[in-house]
Amino acid sequence: MKGRTLLSARWVIGHRGGRHVVYEHGVVVIEGTDVLHVGASFDGEVARRIDYGEAVISPGFIDLDALSDLDTTILGFDNGPAWKKGRVWPESYVARGPYEMYDPEELAFQKRHAFAQLIRNGITTALPIASLFYRAWGETVAEFDAAAEAAKALGLRVYLGPAYRTGGQVTDTAGTIRAVYDEARGLAGLEDAAEFAKRIDGAAGGLIRAMFAPDRIETCTETLLRRTAEIASDMGAPVRQHCCQSPTELRLVREQHDSPPIEWLHQIEALRANWLLPHGTHATDAEFDLIAEAGATLVHCPLVAARHGGMLNSFPKLRGRGINIGLGTDTHPADMILNMQIGMMTARLSDGMDSIRSEDMYDAATLGGAQALNRSDLGRLALGAKADIAVIDLRHALQTPDPVQTLMTGGSGRDVRDVWIDGRQVMADRVIPGIDESADATRAQAQFNGLIAKYPERTTGHPPVSQIFTPSYERATP
């Protein structure tokens, strides 16, 4: 619809003077792709009005580590250790030759399905992440061309780049994990990613931007990371590098480079302000100082960390060091509200009740992501900002006197009602045009079941599925 659109609700989270502000009974006016006005009222002409009532009109969430496949981490929730449960390639699997466990059509569907899930949870900007455990090596340009088409059709703002690596993890039958390398293959993957980045950056009217995604730090060589840093800096593109997330990673990096992960990035002059670093749960104080000094962003993924018994130590302390913190969901469900809630709980478990307030975590989900991407036009509702908006229904919540505190205590991603991205309404009353939610869920489950059936092939000793994934209770028989 042409002309201005005015949105109103009980609560509007605007932005003024460098901080979010709350308007009770406020309005947001959209003109084209941007926000024209945020405030208590608007006297100008509008073509369309939508009153959301008992809801909060929020800037859309920015997900710096957004799940873009069918999440295999949930299979390890009650099934460990990882090396025994198909989460690390066994030597026998590597000897026969790793292969793609999904075909190109399945991979394309997964991106589209995941992108729709992100929108349903109020995520308007996403940097996709997928597992390489079930891949032959890295991600392909073809699947990211399909991802770009899906994002364009759905209207999702994305930063895209296929993941690449120069090494992989392999385990023997005793659980000793080592790295195996094919640097030529990894460098070829980087070159493909660089060509894709140049071609895709700015597509879909600017909704699609380029990023670089070297995989886990323990499976990347110095040459790969140095070249990545140089190419990304020249383009002004973000680099996301998973690091400081497991004891195995720390051991492998120490064995290979005689250094902790972040210190090694610093030593090879790769750590820069455009680097985004999930997860940091095993980083040292010295490494946090290096992140702060570089101006890099720590990507906090509290839900997936807590599921596996970990947490960041600690959100309040790192903010105090001047580190920019953004959020990533990195797991199913892609529920940023739940992610914020777990982040609040773990921070208070670490540092006490008074160490963090609701607005601190909300800032990370909005302003922290915008700062990481060097985008002052995202993560806020203010004049000239992009009209990326999540409307969150509060009719089913026990409302506190403050909307952000209500989200932290009683909200859910399922409460996201409408989503606007770049001024386009991409979801209305939880319906995304062109998406059959039920049919897609059935298709996704069938693909997931097929992957689970293949787990014995890539699990050490090749036990049956029933031994890899043990049930919560004994299965009753008639």
Could you explain how this protein is built, in words?
This protein is an alpha/beta fold and 478 residues long. The protein folds into 2 domains: 1-59 and 379-431, Urease, subunit C, domain 1 (Roll), CATH 2.30.40.10; 61-376, Metal-dependent hydrolases (TIM Barrel, Alpha-Beta Barrel), CATH 3.20.20. The chain is built from 15 helices and 21 strands. The protein has helices at residues 91-96, 104-120, 141-154, 183-200, 222-235, 247-257, 261-267, 285-294, 302-307, 315-320, 336-351, 358-372, 403-410, 437-453, 465-468, and strands at 5-16, 19-31, 34-39, 48-51, 55-59, 61-67, 89-90, 123-129, 157-160, 163-164, 167-171, 177-181, 208-210, 213-214, 239-240, 275-277, 297-300, 324-327, 389-393, 416-421, 424-427. Strands 1, 2, 3, 4, 5, 19, 20 and 21 form an 8-stranded mixed sheet that branches. Helix 2 (104-120) packs parallel to helix 3 (141-154) and helix 2 (104-120) crosses helix 14 (437-453).
Please give a quick description of this structure.
With 478 residues, the chain is an alpha/beta fold. It is built from 15 helices and 21 strands.
